[in-house]
Structure prediction request, 133 residues.
Amino acid sequence: MTNDVESKPSILVIDDDEANRKVLEMILKKENFIPILASNAKIGLELVKSKKPALIVLDIFMPKEDGFSLLTKLKQNDKLRKIPVILFTILDNEESRKKAIDMGVCAYITKPFDMKEIVDVIKSNLKEFGGIK
Prediction:
């Protein structure tokens, strides 16, 4: 018999806004995922390395280090580059969206967000990248 925790994909949410983290944590738990929360890029990078999440939901605007900078570090690391990243941001312009896609994100979701949309995007990307069956 497999451990239930092992069968649930972990999702790392990196966002400096506590309210966003809490809402996403609630949504992820309801959908039977294991949420891992980080309030900034530095903590997020440490958690990516130690927890190896199935997927990352990453905000762009954060103090000290933004999401694009962290995304660059992830994509330059052979052990981390294949983890799918969904950018989650207030930036709703073609330039940022194109930059994100060029950097290898699997989805770009703007805030405010639709709960069903983010769940659907997470599930479809986990299926595509092998995080869930």
